[in-house]
Fold this protein.
Amino acid sequence: MSLLEVHDLTVSYTRRGRWGRPHARPAVHGVSFAVEPGEVVAVVGESGSGKTTTAQAVIGLLPPNGRLDGGRILLGGTDIAGWSQRRLQAVRGAQIGLVPQDPANSLNPVKPVGVQIGEALRIHRRGDRRTITRRVVELLERVGLPDPEVRARQYPHELSGGMRQRVLIAIAVALAPRLIIADEPTSALDVTVQKRILDLIDDLRAESGTAVLLVTHDLGVAADRSDRMVVMKDGRIEERGATRAVLGAPQAAYTARLLRDAPALRAPRFLSTEVTEAVEAVEAVEVPEAAGAARAAAATGATGPTGPTGTGAVCEPPEPAVVVHDLVKEYRAGGRPFRAVDGVSFEVPRGTTHALVGESGSGKTTTARMVMRLAEPTSGSVAIGGAETAGLRGARLRALRRDVQLVYQNPYGSLDPRQSIADIVEEPLRNFGLGDRPARRERVRELLDRVALPAAVLGRRARELSGGQRQRVAIARALAPGPRVVVLDEAVSALDVSVQAQILDLLGELQRDLGLTYLFISHDLAVVRQISHTVSVMSKGRIVETGTTRQLFENPGHAYTRALLAAVPGTAHRPAGQDGTAHRLPAREGAARRLAGQEAGR
Amino acid sequence: MSGSARYLLSRAGQAALVLWAAFTAGYVLLQLLPGDAILIKFQNPELGLSPEQIAEIRSYYGTDGPGAYLHTLLGFLRGDFGYSIDTGTPVAERLAEGLPATAKLAGAAFALAVLIAVAVAFASCHTRLSRLRGALQAVPSLFVSVPAFWLGIVLIQVFSFRLRLVPVIGGSELQQLLLPVLTLAVPISAPIAQILARSLDQVRTQPFVPVVAAKGASPGWILWRHVARNALPPTLTVAGLTFGELIAGSVVTETVFGRNGVGRLTEQAVNAQDTPVLLAVVVLAATVFVLVNLVVDLLYPVLDPRLRRAVA
Amino acid sequence: MRPGLILSWALIVLVALWALVPGVFTGYDPIAGIPAEKLRAPGPGHLFGTDAVGRDLFARVVHGAVNSLSGAFVAVAVGLVLGTLLGLVAGSVRGALDEIVMRVVDVLLSVPGLLLALTVIILLGPGTVNVAVAVGVGSVASFARLARSEVVRVRRTDYVEAAFGSGGRFAAVLWRHVLPNSLVPVVALAALQFGVAILAISTLGFLGYGAEPPTPEWGLLISEGRNYLATAWWLTTLPGTVVVAVVLAASRISRSIGREDG
């Protein structure tokens, strides 16, 4: 008998329409799957696929407007689908545990974490106060928190994200349930923390034989951690089966596309230009010589053209588009100075992409903002196209803005909700007085076409577009003044993988056609591997390693880089046989346009 | 220790600054009325002041310019608020006469307002019947839309004239207090109920609530042990802000019910253009308001551990 | 739009029409009464009944609309213009000026609205316009605070930074992005304050600082009806009900502003 059997599950959400009449909208249709004792089943899908709704239905915690319309949920052979909330209370915690998505907000901020762990025991009346206190300390120890007695008395805000997720896991396993539902348990965490948390869940499962229903958007996580997987799209199951089989030979076209788009599972191919090849020839890996060596090698013309590159990189010795030297940003936190960015130097050759990679708090975004002059450096220098940016004010600073543009992470926040798309894209042209009104309108049309958006969006507001479309608008706006350098601050991090792949293709295409230089800020090594020529790895405000993407991924020099690489999910399942072959930039313009068209048509 | 002491001192300093500014603004505004005219008024034989009293008043208001301002400021700090133009008696005396009655009225009304607000907010949060929920959610908007003076009149009409439950004149102290307290409490309960209901709803959508539910907690457990505690701070803030309305509301309530107190005194002062009395009432109201809100601010770190680090 | 919201707009439009063309709604004179018909209970002839000198109460309520509404408009205009201006300046310039403005707002907030209004009245003297101005002054602080916090919020958004990043000048960004995006909540507050102002004006009218009798101001109507509590309930109850309904409608409309589902 399976531990959990879901048959024909159907869930809908009720929303109020324009005139206040409620109408139900199905979110999950006829979903069936099973979880055997002790195994990990991953439910994989993009946003809106119904994966989280499915998990919420199993534990009986749908949002107030959600309704279970049909189907059976057999827990150990008993159908709990029709149970009252009161009956389900006895099941929750005791037989099914939950590890939630967002450790930052999933603990009550005004209660010590020990109390919140003990609460699970108190609700189910497991022992008196003394036993519970002792058990809480044991649990904290078991989830790998040092000084459990001290931790038990601390409040959530006094713990890091990873520690909070450990506390939440302690809550989930407190009563040794037979099933744990882990809903995107690590998507809010840095990769190295993510790896440790997933390892912990694996260990606990191995110890106690608990089954895990793992809900995730990350195919890499599913590939590494699950025995079987269920792929969902638009509330329906596209495919299910043993993880190895699904990844090895996907049956559904959708799964195949997901696999192709997931950067972690893509076969690695590194971008190369004369510059990266020059560096690789010199084999300079140490910091900070790498970047300097790249320039020196390129400047002396040590390596000539090595064949058709298809990039915008020029053949004569290229002058770096961006030179950052010894950049420092110091904040005062409680009277004590704190260096968010501590002596960062790098160069970006013209027409190439340089990635700044790091976990949260590494200083990568602050560095990008200083390059943009949106933040003032405490010391150090930035030169764009050979011109110093320090001390620029007024008209000269605005002139700099024509050369350097920024694309933000969040496509929802970076577009004015009250402006039409046409106005948004036109704004830089108005600001710089580029052309009269008809000329500007014409240029806006061109730009939208350039980012593969239909002219129909011109009159719409940002909220009427999908996330991918909004990011295209943001890119069009950034291109409007004709910049030479575009800073992409986690520009694809908020997007679903298939949309992410389309935007990355678009960015590659634009770089080749327009000779753009990108500074690509990201926490996602898999994406970085795909888009960048050179990489700097940042940690605690410093660059620990710089090199070409190939050097860094194939032969990481610094321990931190190695730890980061080892933590990238999905590495265990990458298709073998293609490694080590350096590819030129992929020529996939046609595909990018086609996919963008589909997205716009939705 | 030094951190929290510094926080306490800086908040107290800010409060003092606001009070000083309120006093100064009031003083300057009311000085716009010709000063000599004030002195002439005191010589009006109808007030029946003795020559000694007039001399005393003259010495209080006699100085001009910055000296007069300092003189008045020091007077206020000592609890000496000058003299009523209307009666020639010291303002402090008239305030002291009205204060106990108003404090009783306002205190009882505040307690009742909190009671009503908590009852309405929790009932609307707890009920599963959507119709009842909708009705309860509309209660605060209704309460805040009712003119206090009209509510008082309607209450008199219903309870005194129709039902004859509360005598119009006479009756025990409790009976006399009943309708005015209700009149004052209803409009004040509205913003408290509104913010409490909204905070409860907001807290209930936070991600930690499903986590508690997943432990097997009942809705009541979740509401009382988790949600209510987190909804308290914003409610406390709004409750603190209503203290100003409490004093303003007593002007209307005391007038409608013919009760003596600071509110009635204020109304009479405006009618008689008795600026010293009004200045004293304004400063008194601001003091109560600033002190109550200072206490609320200092309570915040006690209620929310996240603020403790910022403080300490 | 929800039914309640439609009803609210209908009521506000009706009352606005009362103020503009009272003659369409009632044939009775609001000032001159018919002594023979004094203290009639509400009925077919007199919808709201009549008062002690035989004036039709409905006619007095309809003709009184213009006093209450115009007063509320003046009050909201004073608060909206002064308050929003202060808040905008404080929020966009920041620094020392911001500090000063916000301390002034703190002082204004520390004095209850009614006492502030009474202070203004003691200076300016009673009268309909003075009362409206006095009520408006009382709302300056709330407008200033809201406008400032909105400006500060909008200034922190990515799209404002992006506007500077794409070469926008300070004034242009303020005009194009900050102002339109911060104004919606301010407009919602204005709608709410419209109701609050009607309440405050009727309160001051009741206390006798507003219009002089026999002007049919709503607060004054209720005040005059107090003497007939035992015999003529309608004199106080019905005008009060109208005030409550109008204030409720204003707050309902306020809540719908800035929300898509209304």
